[in-house]
Amino acid sequence: MSESDTGSNAPSRKPRQGLGRGLSALLGDAAREEPTTGDRETGTSVRLLPVTAMTPHPGQPRRHFDEEAITELANSIAQRGLIQPIVVRPHGKDYQIVAGERRWRAAQRARLHEVPVIVRELSDAETLEIALVENIQRRDLNAIEEADAYRKLIDEFGHTQEALARLVGKSRSHIANLMRLLDLPDDVQALVTEERLTMGHARALLGASDPSTLAHKVVTSEMSVRDTEKLVKAARPGSNGSGRNASPRAIPTHDSGNADIAALEQQLGDVLGLKVRIAHSEQGGTLTLSYSTLDQLDLVCQRLSGETI
């Protein structure tokens, strides 16, 4: 991740009181206003600004942008305009993007000269908080980008894992498990960023003595998370496998039903950031999601309904 804008405000080591109240609380009521098409306004209401007056934030959590998706968004913007405003903050003589860089990129591609924005006076910590929450609610971050943002908020701004869990509506264990992925070698993290490996694959590789070699075997062989776990186990010294030279094909692809269900529970838990339990039988079964806050429940409801924030 690029270094964040240091600015003139020194990072505060005190936990923010606004944590846990969601994106709307961080942005204020202005985030719910409709864009205006008339005269430019002041304050925190929506106004129009030239696209050239804005620059991306160097600490933006999201680093990987799908060019095809941006092109599709640009085509939509060219036909209907930019409906949702971009959130910016004053930065020198111009403005810095807080939330909405993908929309800004698409608006440029659609050759818009002006876009609706909300201008907010925000500190570096608040800027990163808002960018993180917006991307998570839109499911726009991969596991490494999300973990990097958590680490920055903890290391540079003094947040705790508990406070971050309230902020993003996920469990503290989800935050901790994600941050462990940053212990992987850079080349393995790059495979996750490129979405060639999932978070489940990456977690399995944390226990490997040579995660880089095994990660490339996993990608080449298109292995499942369960087979990746078996590959890691077989590669450990003293195992019955043939060590790091073990072939993925030598790994059995079947396992007991309980182990498969446990793996599925873990994968779903990683995606949702919640405790997941599956009770399965030949006649069917139940899927149980456990939440601890209303923010977590609201986030699950939004994802199940397909609602965008």
Automatic annotation (TrEMBL):
<keyword id="KW-0238">DNA-binding</keyword>
<dbReference type="InterPro" id="IPR041468">
    <property type="entry name" value="HTH_ParB/Spo0J"/>
</dbReference>
<feature type="domain" description="ParB-like N-terminal">
    <location>
        <begin position="47"/>
        <end position="136"/>
    </location>
</feature>
<dbReference type="Pfam" id="PF17762">
    <property type="entry name" value="HTH_ParB"/>
</dbReference>
<dbReference type="InterPro" id="IPR004437">
    <property type="entry name" value="ParB/RepB/Spo0J"/>
</dbReference>
<protein>
    <submittedName>
        <fullName>ParB family chromosome partitioning protein</fullName>
    </submittedName>
</protein>
<dbReference type="InterPro" id="IPR036086">
    <property type="entry name" value="ParB/Sulfiredoxin_sf"/>
</dbReference>
<keyword id="KW-0159">Chromosome partition</keyword>
<dbReference type="InterPro" id="IPR057240">
    <property type="entry name" value="ParB_dimer_C"/>
</dbReference>
<feature type="region of interest" description="Disordered">
    <location>
        <begin position="234"/>
        <end position="256"/>
    </location>
</feature>
<dbReference type="GO" id="GO:0045881">
    <property type="term" value="P:positive regulation of sporulation resulting in formation of a cellular spore"/>
</dbReference>
<dbReference type="Pfam" id="PF02195">
    <property type="entry name" value="ParB_N"/>
</dbReference>
<feature type="region of interest" description="Disordered">
    <location>
        <begin position="1"/>
        <end position="45"/>
    </location>
</feature>
<comment type="function">
    <text>Involved in chromosome partition. Localize to both poles of the predivisional cell following completion of DNA replication. Binds to the DNA origin of replication.</text>
</comment>
<feature type="compositionally biased region" description="Polar residues">
    <location>
        <begin position="1"/>
        <end position="11"/>
    </location>
</feature>
<dbReference type="InterPro" id="IPR003115">
    <property type="entry name" value="ParB_N"/>
</dbReference>
<dbReference type="GO" id="GO:0005694">
    <property type="term" value="C:chromosome"/>
</dbReference>
<dbReference type="GO" id="GO:0003677">
    <property type="term" value="F:DNA binding"/>
</dbReference>
<dbReference type="InterPro" id="IPR050336">
    <property type="entry name" value="Chromosome_partition/occlusion"/>
</dbReference>
<comment type="similarity">
    <text>Belongs to the ParB family.</text>
</comment>
<feature type="compositionally biased region" description="Basic and acidic residues">
    <location>
        <begin position="30"/>
        <end position="42"/>
    </location>
</feature>
<dbReference type="Pfam" id="PF23552">
    <property type="entry name" value="ParB_C"/>
</dbReference>
<dbReference type="GO" id="GO:0007059">
    <property type="term" value="P:chromosome segregation"/>
</dbReference>
